[in-house]
Amino acid sequence: MTVSHDLSIISLIGQASVLVQLVMALLAGLSLLSWYWIFRKSFQIRSARSKTNGFERDFWSGGDLNSLFQSAAAARHETGGMERIFESGYREFTKLRSKSHDHAAVIDGARRAMRATYQREVDDLEAHLAFLASVGSVSPYIGLFGTVWGIMNAFRGLSNVSSATLANVAPGIAEALVATAIGLFAAIPAVVAYNRFAHDIDRISIRFESFMEEFSNILQRQLR
């Protein structure tokens, strides 16, 4: 008599041991969370890049700095990172210029204000990247744990069988390997997204730093 087994993914998950099912549920939850942050970060970085491009066009078009500052201050919650860096630096510059005749101290104060805002902007862009990195590095091992446990159960079940055949052991091993597959499904997108986002954020941060240096030179020329 031939024993048939349902080897569909849903059936294999349903037939797995409780511990392996918990591992699969954990991996599925991690995968859903990682996809949530992948989409959120993708929109956030795209918006940051777009706002940076727009502000650079306005800034280097030769407009008045006071006008740019007023527009940035009026729409602070809608501005991009570079615009907020400009706003904080110019606000500190105008405040110190009216109180001090030490040009070096004025420029240094403006740079410190821009550096503080720069750090906040980069920290905001990098938020939750560590979660994606953790999912990418840990998920395969969590899946492997479920696989090892499932295979152990499959071979323990063979102790009650007089003659072990491939038909006896295949379903148990297939159930266990599903955990590894889910672990890889969770890990691969997280790793790809993390590397891409880290590269994009690094490019944006370089643009922020270049702007701070160029803007500091402009402020220095205004003090002469």
From TrEMBL:
It is a multi-pass membrane protein. InterPro entries: ExbB/TolQ_transport, MotA_ExbB_proton_chnl, Tol-Pal_TolQ. It is found in: Cell inner membrane; Cell membrane. Pfam families: MotA_ExbB. The keyword Cell cycle applies. The chain crosses the membrane at residues 12-39, 129-152, 172-194. Belongs to the ExbB/TolQ family. Part of the Tol-Pal system, which plays a role in outer membrane invagination during cell division and is important for maintaining outer membrane integrity. The Tol-Pal system is composed of five core proteins: the inner membrane proteins TolA, TolQ and TolR, the periplasmic protein TolB and the outer membrane protein Pal. They form a network linking the inner and outer membranes and the peptidoglycan layer. This is Tol-Pal system protein TolQ. It comes from Aromatoleum toluolicum. The gene is tolQ.
